[in-house]
Amino acid sequence: MLTKLVICAKWGTKYGTEYVNRLYGMVSRNITPPFEFICFTDSTEGIRPEVKCLPMPELRSGPPARTRGQWRKVTLWNEELYGLSGPALFIDLDSVIVGNLDPYFSFGDPDDVILARNWARPLQRLGQTSVFRFPLGRNGHVLRNFEADPQGIADRFHYEQHFVTHSIGDRLKFWPPSWTRHFRIHCLGSLPLRYLREARLPKTARIVTFAGGPNPSDVIDGRWSPYSPPYGGVWTHLKRTFDGTPRRGSAWRHLKQFVRPCSWIRELWRD
Length: 271
Fold this sequence. Notes:
By secondary structure, this protein is of the alpha/beta class.
């Protein structure tokens, strides 16, 4: 039986070591062995021993200077990545595994590039690189083209996942839509539902992604971000909208940024 390869990336300080350790724990409980879990990182401190750590590749051209986005992820498209080969499933650290991962390896052809659909723009054929499978060492043009003009590419596409979608073109495939769900879009619910009930876990989901926030570590406690005050319930949150309490952004933004403590994330997002 072929070894399934799951990879993630951690650089900088945005996510703590617990994100790597918990992602490994969730993967190990939801995959049929054998599997290997690799983290590309600039710091191995505190990462559990079952995780194979490799240095996060540098961008030879340097990252774009004035553009948001996780552009360093494009280094994973290098034609030579520590001698690794075969299909690899990349999962962002801010993801919660909620179902079996085996179908992510059997779906399509091993040489396919398969992305999650960008649910924020459902009418466009855009991919989301929170969860994607790709053949290591193939499609090296993605990295070569980026390094030839990093700021120009960033100015044109704005986000790494838009550039990857464009680079793969018509060969790009998407996961079945029910597998990879977006927390804010598919679980939280619109106003006023998020005030009336806990975020729901879709029955058919296998991975819930948190692209654009909030993060699992905050949702567990009913917070939108690390800067949010402690959860105080619906009326406390509504009161803070209008009573002059300092907040980040407009009143409307504050009203939208409400989430109840989420029990299924507390249960599943663990080592």
